[in-house]
Amino acid sequence: MDGRFPVVTVVKARLAGGAGSSGEAGRAACFAPRGGAGRMSCLVAVSGEHEPSLSAGIPTVTQRSVAVLLNCSSRSNRAAEQRARLGELLNESGLAADLLCAEKGRHMGELARRAARGPYDLVVAGGGDGTMSTVAAAVTGTDKTMGVLPLGTVNHFAKYLGVPLDLEGAVRTLVEGRRVLVDLGEVNGRVFVNNSTLGIYPSIVRGREALRKRSGINKWLAFALATASGIWRHKGARLRLLLDGQELELDTPFVFVANSDFKLGDLDLARQRPPHRGELGVCVARAESRLAMVKLIASAFAGRIQKANDFSIMRTTELRVEAPCRHLHVAADGEILRMTPPLVYRTRPSALSVIVPPSSEISAGPRRQEDQPGHLAALGG
Q1: pTM for the whole thing?
Q2: Among 141, 176, 211, where does a domain finish?
Q3: Are 196 and 255 in contact (CB under 8 A)?
Q4: pLDDT band for position 59 (cuts 50, 70, 90)
Q5: Is there a domain that residue 316 lies in?
Q6: Residues 350, 149, 356, 163: what is their CA dihedral angle, to the nearest 10 degrees?
Q7: CATH number reported for the structural domain that contains residue 56 in this entry
Q8: Which value, in Å, is the radius of gyration of the alpha carbons in the chain?
Q9: Residues 279, 202 share a domain
Q10: Is the peptide bond before 342 cis (omega within 30 degrees of 0)?
Q11: What is the pLDDT of residues 109-161, one digit of tens each?
Q12: Alpha-helical runs (H) found in 305-379
């Protein structure tokens, strides 16, 4: 992009009353409820063209109180059916919603920032954890509330909030849910909702995506192959960690910084309570050989890594990571970033307003005084 904005295009309906019909032959789609009854939901596309403002691309008639943001890069029948079903559910729910569509994942950030500046009270992220992170970054610091539609593979953030993973339950949460404030993490100013990692994990994710792009194989098979390759090729980085007056210098293949909980995908690395409000969780592995690394990974899959002598679990309010190199690959909510050290991790307490189900265990506001972070864990395992 050259500094100008991608154009936002409203695609008018081509439907006369079909069920979940779609205009995806063009740049976006519009969906009507079954039988043609009720309001039609227009899907707005962000493409690679340029236009200076959101309002220039969206007619006044579509300016409603709810914006639902979708990554529509997938052209599969399953994705089209999912979007059609979402349009039906939103119409049935009575929500006055605009469906806004980014044609490519890299356009989601600009679309989210526009929606956060727009006339909407609720900005809903539909997608995986990368989309959640992008939309959260746009919404924080505004008077908007974020909603969650878990359309990804892992859906870590949705699970943490207690949002149902089925589309019907997630839409119902938008209608019946309550607003709560949750923390965000950040690394060098880049927001994350779940976690951030250094070391072998970003290398594995990069290898997985390269394999999928090159051969089109299943995501989990690609992950397994990339893990094996990563163990063989990875060289531990010499890092200096500073947190709350403590200092640790070591060769490590893995540093994990938690905002919401200690889970990496479905692996619980600590089997402890999640970080309190205003607190980050930090896990650090020590492995001086490939065999030691294999043992650590095996213990993680077996659910016993937190008991390993070469695995430390800490809690802090800020972490600084120094490294004798020009760049580090950093994973933040599964997205791989290239950053210049030092890396400074901070927490943003109660920074994001988000809708959760009435039954969610997430508290509505700051924790009571007795729940505030206490003595930090020692650096020893």
Answers
A1: 0.77
A2: 176
A3: no
A4: very low
A5: yes
A6: -120
A7: 3.40.50.10330
A8: 22
A9: yes
A10: yes
A11: 999 999 999 999 999 999 999 999 999 999 999 999 999 999 988 899 999 99
A12: none
Specify the range with the lowest mean pLDDT, choosing from 56-65, 205-214, 269-278, 327-336: 56-65
**Does any domain span residue 53?**
yes
CA–CA separation, 160 and 301 (whole Å):
20
On whether both 202 and 320 belong to a single domain, the answer is yes
Q: How far is CA 4 from the centre of its chain?
A: 25
Distance (Å, whole) CA 151 – CA 85: 12
Q: Which tokens belong to 104?
A: 């490519």
164 and 201 belong to one structural domain: no
pLDDT at 12: 28
**19-26 CB contacts, 8 Å cutoff, 24+ apart:** 19/84, 19/88, 20/81, 20/84, 20/85, 20/87, 20/88, 21/84, 22/80, 22/83, 22/84, 24/72, 24/75, 24/80
Shared domain check, 50 and 102 = yes
User: How much is the pLDDT for 173?
Assistant: 95
* Helices vs strands, H then E, count in the chain: 9, 21
* Cα 131 to Cα 192: distance, rounded to the nearest angstrom: 11
